[in-house]
Design a protein that fits this description.
single chain, mainly alpha, two-stranded antiparallel ribbon, two-stranded antiparallel sheet, 30 helices
């Protein structure tokens, strides 16, 4: 810019630069700093390359384009581009410009950029050049060239002889476009022999184009004109075709204009040989079913971006159905167009009647399920309702006896099974790989977020729940096996967490297996001998005949995709049988593996035995040693709640029995916060035994089970303490000559001790032998026949519940509560007798009478209860000794 030869321009730029420097700085124009800034700015203006074109890059781009031309076999274009670039760079763009200047490269850069990014302007193609109107070609004359042309009188079947072969007949088109036969001798042609109606029937007017001028349609012969009258009615073929088009999903037809979201019928439609009322009824019916097709088409093709998979599967099954339906419509239309046979409206109505019935049923399914959706409905509720409606409609169709709907029954079953595919995929993935993948929560079972941890003991009991009880009512075919499905899914998930994933030996998916089993339940292979099954209703002769016909016609059917059922009951049984077989097969295999893991690898039996040895005191010598040391401390009024001392006593007792065993996981705990009843016998209720139960065994032995074991342990501890206190009493301690006491009081106290000892011993034997030992033996026998984890949990819970009930610890009714309270009072009397015995010198007549009266009341109360049991003959054998002791 500053290299210009114009001095005025250069001087102007210099002055502008000085003003710019003065504006931006505080330097005076005469100062050295001002001059330095000005020279620097001028140099930048002169030598700056900002936004300038790079000649090297432009050369490389053009060379690259030439190489592309050569690669794509266009060497001529490559040569032309290279030569054009060379000539352009060497030419002078102006008088003062030089060759290969920046201006040349700027122009080349602009051309290159425009070639890749053309101007953003809407392209309007130039109007096509209209060729001169071609002369109308006379096809009739061309096709009749060389053919003999009869006289007009012969066209009317007259007796006039034909012309001879020597006569020359010419075909001459008239001015109006009609054909005239001209013969030597100036023969005139009469037009009264033409059948105008016959010719008019061959002409199809553009009835859908209301602006067309149909009055110009005429037939001519010589100089006379024969016109076809204009009529407002349509021929039957046109009405039939528009009906078929409407059923194919075409909108806004001439007969069926589309207004306000539905097809309407034009009122001015007439047909010559059909009454207006009949025609209106037929067209209204066709419009109704066209609306059904439109609604279902909109559901299939206009689905929401996020929609449950069940709805997507239902839409795909409807799409498959409508593909066949529209192919049927096309075939019917092709038959009408060929006109090889005349079709009346009644014929079309008869052919479409089965399809109309099918559309009505599908519309009923749609309006009873999808149409009822509201925003608050969950995906689970939507999918279950759709599946339930489909299932109910199938049962309704099965109850009908018409053979015409047999194929449609198969179509309905196929739609139902295809709609079930997402459910089966969720089931298959859960029961095979242990993953319940249901992002939209459309499955009938869901997992709560609070119990999502598989290592929680609540996983097995409350890991899955029904979001809506009504959803199960929609699935009667799944409800009988729903519990097995849950057990199978939880078991596979548990095995996967244990590092023992199930191997899928059956590569067939649940969906395909269900279809195969559903088919096998109702159809026999062709190779087998087929006998006609008997219909249950022997009184309906027509039903029997039609059923036999249907059975024999379908002997060569493809069993993989066809289903034949007679009545609704076989379908219900077949469906439940098929799904039950699939679930039971998977469940049996999973249960075998999981039970083996629990029983063998995790050694659940040993854990049960540890609870029995300690909590139920099966290890008599070990627990006797531990309890004796505990009872001695309590009797001696020594502080016995020291946790370390109790644990040391238990481990010392275990070491005597099993010196080499490591049972450190068994510990004693003192729960001082536990509520304790009043009475000296209840002081040991704060003592609990703790046995660590790791995952996954805590699924079987839960915290509730541990609590039940501790309840039994505390009760047995009370019973043992009462016996221990009575056994510790020696006669020499009260009949010592060194301490003479009143003999009568000592004797009465000894008798009371013997009575208490006999009664408590009988109850102790009943609890330890008849209850614990017998129930434990029964429990171990039940474990040998378990088939799944639920059987183990049930057997274990029943074992604990039974022992608590027989020991009267559940207090289910008032009588159990009274008996247990009486027994505990007797235990407390034993502790009191032990205390009085040790302090015999402080024994008074009043205190002894109080003890004797309390025991008498308790024994008489228990005696009355036993007497009632004896009178009814319902005394258990194990309680006979106790009853005898009380009644004596």
């Amino acid at each position: 810019m500053l290299t210009s030869s114009n001095p005025k321009f250069r001087k102007k730029i210099t002055r502008a630069t000085s003003r710019l420097v003065s504006k931006l700085t505080d330097f005076e124009e005469s100062s050295e700093n001002h001059e330095t800034c000005r020279e620097y700015a001028l140099s930048q203006f002169s030598n700056s390359r900002f936004m300038a074109s790079d000649s090297n890059k432009i050369d490389r781009r053009i060379v690259g384009i030439c190489e592309k031309f050569i690669i794509h076999n266009n060497p001529e274009n490559a040569k032309f581009l290279a030569e054009f670039k060379k000539r352009f760079l060497n030419c002078d763009l102006s008088q003062n410009s030089l060759a290969r200047s920046n201006v040349h490269y700027d122009v080349l850069l602009l051309a290159l950029e425009l070639s890749e990014n053309p101007i953003n302007r809407k392209y309007i193609p130039p109007p096509p050049k209209l060729s001169p109107e071609e002369e109308k070609f006379d096809w009739k004359a061309y096709l009749l060239e060389g053919e003999e042309m009869p006289y007009p009188s012969q066209w009317a079947f007259s007796d006039t002889p034909c012309h001879s072969e020597d006569e020359d007949v010419k075909i001459v088109p008239s001015k109006d476009g009609c054909v005239e036969a001209v013969q030597p001798g100036d023969l005139s042609v009469k037009d009264d022999r033409y059948d105008a109606n016959e010719l008019g029937s061959c002409l199809v007017l553009e009835y859908w184009n209301e602006t067309s001028d149909v009055s110009s349609v005429t037939f001519h012969s010589n100089n006379d004109m024969l016109s076809i009258p204009i009529e407002s009615n349509l021929c039957e073929v046109n009405i039939i075709r528009e009906v078929l088009w409407a059923l194919s999903g075409v909108r806004d037809l001439y007969i069926f204009p589309y207004n306000d979201g539905k097809h309407t019928v034009r009122k001015d439609i007439l047909c010559t040989h059909v009454t207006p009322k009949s025609l209106s009824s037929f067209l209204t019916k066709a419009a109704h079913y066209a609306d059904i097709v439109r609604r279902l088409d909109e559901f299939v093709f206009n689905r929401k971006p996020v929609e449950c998979r069940t709805y997507q599967a239902f839409a795909e099954s409807l799409l498959a159905y409508f593909t066949g339906f529209k192919n049927f419509i096309k075939q019917l239309e092709s038959l009408v167009v060929l006109q090889e046979k005349s079709y009346l409206l009644t014929d079309i109505l008869q052919k479409l009647a089965p399809k109309f019935y099918e559309l009505e049923v599908l519309n009923c399914i749609f309006t009873s399920s999808v149409d009822l959706d509201i925003e608050t409905d969950s995906y689970c509720h939507k999918s279950c309702r759709l599946l339930g409606v489909l299932y109910r409609v199938i049962l309704d169709e099965m109850s009908k006896d018409a053979l015409e709907v047999g194929n449609f029954r198969n179509a309905l079953i196929k739609i139902w099974i295809d709609t079930l595919r997402p459910y089966f995929e969720i089931l298959d993935r859960w029961m095979s790989s242990g993953m319940l993948m249901d992002e939209l929560k459309e499955f009938v079972l869901q997992r709560p977020r609070s119990n999502s941890d598989i290592k929680s003991e609540l996983f097995w009991t409350s890991a899955f729940y029904l979001p809506d009880d009504q959803c199960v009512m929609y699935l009667p075919w799944l409800k009988p096996v729903l519990n097995d499905v849950v057990v199978c899914g939880k078991s596979v998930e548990l095995l996967k967490s244990l590092g023992k994933p199930m191997k899928n030996y059956n590569c067939v998916s649940i969906h395909d297996d269900f279809v195969q089993k559903l088919t096998n339940c109702n159809l026999k292979p062709e190779s087998e001998e087929i006998s006609t099954p008997e219909v249950e209703s022997s009184t309906d002769i027509m039903l029997r005949i039609n059923f036999e016909k249907l059975f024999h016609e379908n002997r060569h059917v493809n069993y993989a995709c066809e289903f034949q059922f007679c009545g609704s009951t076989p379908f219900v049984k077949s469906t439940q049988k098929a799904i039950s077989q699939i679930v039971q097969t998977k469940l049996t295999r999973v249960n075998e593996v999981l039970v083996n893991v629990f029983m063998v690898e995790l050694d659940l039996i040993s854990l049960f035995r540890y609870f029995h040895k300690f909590h139920l005191m099966e290890w008599g010598d070990v627990m006797h040693s531990f309890c004796s040391s505990l009872f001695e401390k309590i009797s001696s009024d020594v502080y016995w709640m020291d946790l370390m001392s109790l644990r040391a006593s238990l481990q010392e007792a275990i070491s005597y029995r099993e010196p080499d065993s490591d049972l450190t996981f068994v510990a004693v705990a003192v729960n001082k916060t536990k509520p304790v009843k009043s009475g000296s016998i209840h002081v040991t209720d704060v003592v609990d035994l703790i046995i660590d139960v790791n995952w996954p065994l805590n699924i079987v032995i839960t915290n509730k089970s541990k609590n039940d074991y501790n309840i039994l342990f505390c009760y047995i501890l009370k019973l043992k303490r009462a016996l221990f206190c009575l056994h510790q009493l020696r006669f020499d301690t009260i009949f010592n000559p060194k301490f003479p006491q009143r003999p009568s009081l000592c004797h009465r106290l000894s008798l009371l001790r013997s009575s208490l000892l006999g009664l408590i011993s009988q109850w102790h034997n009943f609890v330890m032998t008849s209850v614990i030992e017998s129930q434990k033996k029964e429990f171990m026998e039940n474990l040998k026949s378990v088939r799944n984890i639920d059987d183990i949990i049930t057997a274990h819970n029943n074992f604990l519940e039974r022992m608590l009930s027989l020991c009267l610890l559940k207090e289910e009714n008032r009588s159990d509560k009274l008996i247990q309270g009486t027994l505990l009072k007797i235990f407390d009397l034993a502790i009191s007798v032990h205390s009085k015995w040790k302090n015999i010198h402080a024994l008074s007549e009043f205190g002894l009478k109080k003890l004797e009266s309390d025991y008498k009341e308790c024994s008489e109360f228990l005696g009355v209860i036993m007497l009632n049991l004896v009178s009814r003959g319902s005394v258990p054998l194990s309680l006979e000794a106790l009853a005898l002791c009380l009644m004596s």
